[in-house]
């Protein structure tokens, strides 16, 4: 103890010396800058030899001052070296053979930590300055389950990526839903120097399911207790985060705190900032045992190797079993059990300054954690109210959160220069494909779009649907952008079956869509609509990529390939299911055609039967789709025959045919080379014909196109000659590809095109 005190005194004396010497130096310089009570100007102009005020004595004085300044600076450097040598004697945890480290000046933020630590009542620690090597990998563990938590994780990850300067390895304990969503997201995000591993949360349920838990996080809120058992045995340390965390600094600063752990400290935690564990919130309030105010587990530093040696698994289980005999259940999930263990073993905790977990629930002491914006490190929205929480500075915190919520994630694909990254096969293949393109080609941008990887967030909202047991279920498939959102409610009213939608949005637009959907009673009442966000990138609308994304995540045996501007007739869903059986789609390659019509009226009394539709057709209220601008697109449907047909009839493929069809889920994808306007559906129907699909027109089915302003892409097609030239080039290349794949049978497509 005496040695420690002496060490602290030496450190304090050295620190005071460092602070005082510069001050004395500047006093000396200030005093020396006066001559005979008058200030001596240090202007370069006035110090020239030809200046009348220039004297030999003042020159000597200046030289003397310069020598003294150099001596003082040398003394300061010597003192710093002595301090660093003294600190270097303490054991340091290092990984890898990297030379450069982040010192206090380079961003570990220790000076800010010291200042804010004083604000929060956390005493500063003497000893080793925390260091994080430049290319050291930082490990982060997050428990995530369900659709909403997956969205929250994205915002958390954005805030971490925004500030980070180190490689990251995310360990995600996820259920099957979150794994599907986040695996696709990270795979399409392609952020350099980021690795993601998944651990099946459902397999861990048996480890904690015996613990009754009242917290809204449910069983997944207990899974941080089993991380020592779940994470790889060679992983020594990890930062554990809740999904409702936002970082306001480089996570390397928090990782550096591991170097401050001493003795048997294995848990880094911030004190709980509410009065929950003090037990005086209401009459008969009885919280779990805790040390003082207890600790919040929204941010945890875990020394996994030491915890395993201490038999952490046995430690928390025995504590939980003992306390549950009296408490019956947990109120705050894993946090209650962590605190009960700490109550019995306070030596396990390294207390973190409270700016590492500023807790924004109602009635907390969070305001004591910061004086200025620069003091903030981690914000924790740990109230069920989330952004609606009561806090003096909640508007500032909300804006900070919204910044990352709407931040363009594509901008976070930053290389970490000087740090070797693991080989990514997808990234290497993409670079190879792009390198083979000719950048001088006038159609380069069109060709490049085919290989662009768009960040994709599947199932943006809650989705829940079990396909019908009779194996006749049909999913409506469509794609849209922000300017077509108003069609969603109308389609939901017309089609009661499952829907798979791909939405092409920016990050900010995705949040606007979320607010729109959550404010719609119609959309919120439907759990069988899957919304897949494909984030904007590039100058073209990737229409066929969007269709492929929506098709890929259809969960029914059959798909109705529609467009967002069409309203299906009432009852079409049930009619198609009956037609599937009637035409034996399960065992034959058929494409059932739903005849398409259009109206030029924004307000339409939608026809409730074929007879009513024919009447409106005769009166000029309705028209066959695109009859006045693109008759070839739907002419083969043979509308004249359809008027009197009572049974399905077959039609033959013709050039430029692009009907809306119902097919099996295993049908070919759309060709991605076609973007924006032109030939995107035509090419797909040609592919179906090449694979010998029969086109069968349904006699009692119809859909109606609703009017809207021209899209940006069709405007480009009409006004830009180069756009049309490139589209023609892509068509020719597609037809050549068809000839190579399907041989002699594909010659008719070239002939038909030449004759059209």
Major sheet summary line: 9 strands, mixed
Average pLDDT confidence is 82
Secondary-structure-based class equals alpha/beta
Given as residue ranges, the uncertain stretches (5+ residues, pLDDT < 50) are 1-6, 21-56, 83-128
Quick overview:
This protein is of the alpha/beta class. Helices cover 40% and strands 15% of the residues.
Which helices and strands occur, and which strands form pairs?
Blueprint: H1 2-32, E1 34-35, E2 38-39, H2 56-88, E3 101-102, H3 104-108, H4 110-119, E4 132-133, E5 138-144, H5 146-163, E6 168-174, H6 176-189, E7 194-200, H7 201-208, H8 227-230, E8 237-241, E9 245-247, H9 251-256, E10 267-271, E11 295-303, H10 304-309, H11 312-327, H12 334-344, E12 349-352, E13 358-359, E14 378-380, H13 394-405, H14 425-435, H15 444-449, E15 456-457, E16 474-481, H16 487-494, E17 499-505, H17 507-518, H18 521-524, E18 529-535, H19 543-552, E19 558-561, E20 566-568, H20 572-582, E21 590-594, E22 596-598, H21 610-619, E23 623-624, H22 639-644, E24 649-651, E25 660-664, H23 680-690, E26 694-697, E27 703-705, H24 712-719, H25 721-742, H26 747-755
Parallel strand pairs: 5-6, 5-8, 6-7, 10-12, 13-14, 16-17, 16-19, 17-18, 21-26, 22-27
Antiparallel strand pairs: 1-2, 3-4, 8-11, 9-14, 10-11, 15-18, 19-25, 20-27, 21-25, 22-23, 24-26
Helix pairs in contact: 1-2, 5-6, 11-12
Description:
The protein is of the alpha/beta class and about 750 residues long. Helix content is about 40%, strand content about 15%. The chain has 26 helices and 27 strands. The strands form six sheets. Strands 15-18-17-16-19-25-21-26-24 form a nine-stranded mixed sheet. A seven-stranded mixed sheet has the order 7-6-5-8-11-10-12. Helix 11 packs across helix 12. The longest helix has about 35 residues, at about 55-90. Residues about 1-5, about 20-55 and about 85-130 have low confidence and may be disordered. It is found in: Golgi apparatus membrane. GO terms for molecular function: glucuronosyltransferase activity; xylosyltransferase activity. Keywords: Glycoprotein, Glycosyltransferase, Golgi apparatus, Membrane, Multifunctional enzyme, Signal-anchor, Transferase, Transmembrane, Transmembrane helix. One of its GO terms (biological process) is protein O-linked glycosylation via mannose. Pfam families: Glyco_transf_49, Glyco_transf_8.
């Amino acid at each position: 103890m005496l040695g420690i005190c002496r060490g602290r005194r030496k450190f304090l004396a050295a620190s005071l010396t460092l602070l005082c010497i510069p001050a004395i130096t500047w006093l000396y310089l200030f005093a020396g800058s006066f001559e005979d009570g008058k200030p001596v100007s240090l202007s370069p102009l006035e110090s020239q030899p030809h200046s009348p005020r220039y004297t030999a004595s003042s020159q000597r004085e200046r030289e003397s001052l310069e020598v003294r300044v150099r001596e003082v600076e040398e003394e300061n450097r010597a003192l710093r070296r002595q301090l660093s040598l003294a600190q270097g004697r303490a054991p340091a945890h290092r990984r890898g053979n990297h030379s450069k480290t982040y010192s206090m000046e380079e961003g570990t933020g220790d000076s800010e930590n010291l200042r804010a630590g004083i604000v929060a009542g956390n005493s500063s620690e003497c000893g080793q300055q925390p260091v994080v090597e430049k290319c050291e990998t930082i490990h982060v563990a997050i428990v995530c389950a369900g659709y909403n938590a997956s969205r929250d994780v994205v915002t958390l990850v954005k805030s971490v990526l925004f500030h980070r300067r180190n490689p990251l390895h995310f360990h995600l304990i996820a259920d099957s839903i979150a794994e599907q969503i986040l695996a696709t997201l990270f795979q399409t995000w392609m952020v350099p120097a980021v690795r993601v591993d998944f651990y099946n949360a459902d397999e861990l349920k048996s480890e904690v399911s015996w613990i009754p838990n009242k917290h809204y996080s449910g069983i997944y809120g207990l899974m941080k207790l089993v991380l020592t058992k779940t994470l790889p045995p060679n992983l020594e340390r990890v930062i554990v985060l809740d999904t409702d965390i936002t970082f306001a600094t480089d996570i390397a600063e928090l990782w550096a705190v591991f170097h401050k752990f001493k003795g048997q400290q294995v848990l880094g935690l911030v004190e709980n900032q509410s009065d929950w564990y003090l037990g005086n919130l209401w009459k008969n309030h009885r919280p779990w045992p805790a040390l003082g105010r207890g600790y919040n587990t929204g941010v945890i530093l875990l020394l996994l190797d030491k915890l395993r040696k201490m038999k952490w698994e046995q430690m928390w289980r025995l504590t939980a079993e003992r306390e549950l005999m009296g408490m019956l259940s947990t109120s705050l999930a894993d946090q209650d059990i962590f605190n009960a263990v700490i109550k019995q073993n306070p030596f396990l905790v390294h207390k973190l300054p409270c700016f590492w977990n500023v807790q924004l629930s109602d009635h907390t002491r969070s305001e004591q954690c910061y004086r200025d914006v620069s003091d903030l490190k981690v914000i924790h929205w740990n109230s069920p109210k989330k952004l609606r929480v009561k806090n003096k500075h909640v508007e500032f915190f909300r804006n900070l959160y919204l910044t990352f919520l709407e931040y363009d994630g594509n901008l976070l694909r930053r290389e970490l220069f000087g740090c070797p990254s693991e080989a990514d096969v997808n990234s290497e293949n993409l670079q190879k494909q792009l390198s083979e393109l000719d950048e001088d080609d006038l159609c380069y941008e069109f060709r490049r779009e085919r290989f662009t990887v768009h960040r994709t967030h599947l199932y943006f909202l809650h989705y829940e649907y079990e396909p019908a047991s009779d194996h006749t279920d049909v999913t409506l498939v469509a794609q849209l952008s922000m300017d077509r959102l108003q069609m969603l409610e109308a389609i939901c009213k017309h089609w009661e079956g499952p829907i798979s939608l791909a939405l092409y949005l920016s990050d900010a637009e995705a949040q606007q869509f979320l607010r729109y959907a959550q404010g719609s009673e119609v959309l919120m009442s439907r759990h069988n609509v899957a919304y897949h966000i494909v984030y904007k990138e590039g100058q073209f609308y990737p229409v066929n990529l969007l269709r492929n994304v929506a098709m890929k995540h259809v969960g029914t045996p059959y798909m109705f390939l529609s467009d967002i501007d069409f309203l299906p007739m009432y009852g079409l869903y049930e009619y198609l299911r009956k037609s599937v059986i009637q035409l034996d789609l399960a065992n034959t390659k058929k494409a059932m055609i739903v005849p398409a019509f259009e109206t030029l009226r924004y307000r339409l009394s939608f026809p409730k039967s074929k007879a009513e539709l024919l009447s409106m057709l005769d009166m000029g209220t309705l028209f066959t789709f695109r009859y006045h601008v693109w008759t070839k697109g739907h002419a083969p449907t043979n509308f004249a025959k359809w008027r009197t047909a009572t049974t399905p009839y077959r039609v033959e493929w013709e050039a430029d045919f692009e009907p809306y069809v119902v097919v099996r889920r295993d049908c070919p994808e759309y060709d991605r080379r076609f973007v924006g306007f032109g030939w995107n559906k035509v090419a797909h129907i040609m592919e179906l014909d090449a694979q010998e699909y029969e086109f069968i027109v349904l006699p009692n089915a119809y859909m109606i196109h609703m009017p809207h302003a021209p899209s940006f892409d069709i405007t480009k097609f009409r006004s830009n000659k180069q756009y049309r030239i490139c589209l023609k080039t892509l068509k020719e290349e597609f037809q050549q590809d068809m000839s190579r794949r399907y041989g002699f049978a594909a010659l008719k497509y070239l002939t038909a095109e030449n004759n059209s």
